Amino acid sequence: MTPRPATACGDAPGATLFGAARRVAVLLPVPVDAPYDYAVPPEMEPVAPGDLVRVPLGKRIETGVVWGEGAADVPETKLRPILERLDVPPMPAPLRDLIDWCAAYTLAPLGQVLRMALSVPEALDPPKPRTGYTARVADLSETTLRATDARRKVLEAARAWPSSEPPPAAADLARRAGVGATVVRGLAEGGALAPVPVVEEPEITAPDPHRAGPALSPDQARAADVLRAAARGGFSVTLLEGVTGSGKTEVYFEAVAETLARGRQVLVLLPEIALTARWPERFRDRFGAPPAPWHSDMPRAQRRDIWRAVAFGRVSVVVGARSALFLPFPDLGLIIIDEEHDGAFKQEDGVPYNARDMAVVRGRAGAHAVVMASATPSLETVLNARAGRYAFVPLPRRHGGAALPAIETLDLRAHPPEKWQRQGMLAPSFLAPPLLDAMDATIRRGEQVLLFLNRRGYAPLTLCRACGHRMQCPNCSAWLVEHRHRRLLQCHHCDYRMPLPETCPACGTADALAPCGPGVERVAEEVASRFPTARLVVAASDTLLGPTAAAELMERIEQGAVDIVIGTQVMAKGHHFPLLTLVGVVDADLGLSGGDLRAAERTFQLLHQVSGRAGRAERPGRVLVQTADPEHPVMRALVSGDAETFLAVEAETRQAVMMPPFGRLVALVVSGLDERAVIEAGKALARSAPRAADVEVLGPAPAPLAVLRRQHRHRLLLKAARSVRVQPLVRDWLAAVKLPPGVRVKVDVDPYGFM
Ligand SMILES: Nc1ncnc2c1ncn2[C@@H]1O[C@H](COP(=O)(O)OP(=O)(O)OP(=O)(O)O)[C@@H](O)[C@H]1O
Ligand SMILES: [Zn+2]
Which positions in this protein are listed as binding Zn(2+) 1 (predicted)? Predict the structure, then answer.
């Protein structure tokens, strides 16, 4: 552990002497490892852990949280006082536990983790009052004001304003009286109306847990019983594994209802909340009121309101992205993690934590149930369920008698795509003839097609036919992706953009730059030409502008206003389109290259999820998976539907090399502008790497993304047996190496991505 900092004020002398004043530790949302001590002015008592306080820090004033008793190792004379205790509920103990745990586990500074829980500092201030007006007199004759018609009407309206409602604003009162707002202000100045400060928190309709849900099938009812029982008990984790379209949402809604009926709060975590915009509508259909959303794309004012409503217990259900886990629920009774296998639960920037795992920590701290739902649970979670650490609830059948789709591979070597005519020239095709035939037949039947390609833009690479030059990002070791609609080349890592040049920047040849490989836009171009009358949409994170637009598009698809959807992973999960019967996977091999530990698992999950969009209602579904390697275990598992064997082989492979979840991994990414310094630092780290039984350090080696935003990046990987506590090892390791200026080391415990 880093030693507790001596004092918050540096060399500034203590402002006051406090005699025997009590001291407390206050954690501040700044990158420090431990709380600072402060004195509690006696008149402020009682001050207790969790209280939000304002304290001096150097020359600033900071807001922090009382974390516990003071440490007594700061001299009395240096101790500074708490300035103010804020008028918000204390941070609940389970959230403080989570913050402690998260910092200790990820090795992130404690204060940096706290910062995630205080992400909307303005939510700590009382809402700004607005001015309302009440009648001060019964009649204008009691004032010196001349009695005009307009004035009389306003005074009457003010006197008639229902006392159950807060006093109206000038504009509202004027509207009621049918006059202009200036009349109201004139009456206030003349003493006929009294201006009063009105504090209003936004109104929230509570979801009603007693509304009847749909009639559940026997399978669903059994599963719902187990989840309801879990929601009544203390801490538990349950894996709800249901095939795509089995009604997992309806089933876990029963656990939500149970928790709400017991008067406790519920948190539902969804990956990429902004894109699963239909979920709140389903919730509203079931419970009669919307859940409170929480994600980073929300307007700040809305985040402020929701943070407060959660803290004061006025909100009972939040549906959000991973950061919702750090909201100050005073009485959380259930966490649901939908699509628990999804990589979006892992935060890569800032504090690298996995919200799925931290939800379990939060559940244990708060002694309540945690439910993980997925059709393709992660290997970690499956093993936890097998070992009995998690309860297991299966939903083996689709709802309403729908069959699972028939999945076939389409060997691209046996069925090479045939070129097509583009503006009088032959253009490469990305769709094999059998897929095109199936699409044609599907549309003719009035059904829908989803073509899945997990690549945004037009082409992932642009190259010069004359000299072979490849258009690369100036800041990253990555190709620039062409976005033809927007007429630009863009880096998907740093967002660098440039117009598509007319001549090759290397050799100067005109019109020689050619796209290489497909993105969704390019597939759409081919489809538009081959199916000129079909109604076509492209759905990718950069074409769906915001949750509302996304929800609208999903609704249009649901209603059959679209024939062919060409989409990235935003189309893969959660959606329920009754008319969608054909899914074509354009490039199933895309995610399999590269040395990523989870490449096979992730590809299987994604392709299985997207396959699951087909044939969810009466009409049967079909999936065609284009691949150059139909014998690959991922393709075989997809076709056979035998996830169990696939996971067993995955498990065996990883166990043989002691990779997660059988061993532990910690990634260290060394980065800096100066490549030499980065390499030297990497070597220095390797030299002082921990030497212990069951611990191995690999690297340094350039990271797959060797340059990112001009920063050179080298990686080391610490691999250890599960029994090893890696945090103290890494802490000592980092403490032993002095980094040159300008070089940083980012620690990622349980890395998920390997870029
Ligand atoms: N008991 C039921 N009564 C009526 N409709 C149901 C019932 N169960 C499920 N459904 C409907 O079936 C569809 C599929 O359910 P849901 O989306 O919950 O499945 P899922 O298991 O979450 O699927 P996926 O994992 O593919 O997203 C939804 O439209 C849902 O409303
Ligand atoms: Zn870049």
Answer: 464, 467, 504, 507
Q: Is 250 in the pocket of ligand 1 (CB under 6 A)?
A: yes
Give the model confidence (pLDDT) of 34-61 as tens digits.
999 999 999 998 999 999 999 999 999 9
222 and 146 assigned to the same domain: no
3 state DSSP class of 174: helix
Q: What pTM value is reported for the model?
A: 0.88
> Same domain for 228 and 313?
yes
**Complex-level ipTM:** 0.97
Minimum CA distance residue for ligand 1 atom 12? 247
DSSP per residue over 376-432, as a string? Answer: S--HHHHHHHHTTSSEEEEE-S-GGGPPPPEEEEEETTTSPPPPEEETTEEE---S-
Report the residue among 576, 577, 579, 610 best suited for mutation to probe ligand 1: largest number of ligand atoms under 8 A from its CB.
Answer: 576
- CA–CA separation, 205 and 153 (whole Å): 33
Per the DSSP assignment, residues forming a β-bridge with 209 are none
pLDDT band at residue 19 using 50, 70 and 90 as cut-offs: low
Write the pLDDT tens digit of every residue in 536-567.
Answer: 999 988 877 777 788 888 889 999 999 999 99
Angle ∠(681,686,687) on CA atoms, nearest 5: 95
Q: Into how many domains does the chain fold?
A: 6
533 and 548 housed in the same domain = yes
Q: Is 249 in the pocket of ligand 1 (CB under 6 A)?
A: yes
Give per-residue pLDDT as tens, 88-145. Answer: 999 999 999 999 999 999 999 999 999 999 999 999 988 888 889 999 998 888 888 8
292 and 386 fall within a common domain: yes
Instruction: State residue 674 phi and psi, 5-degree precision.
Output: -95, 110
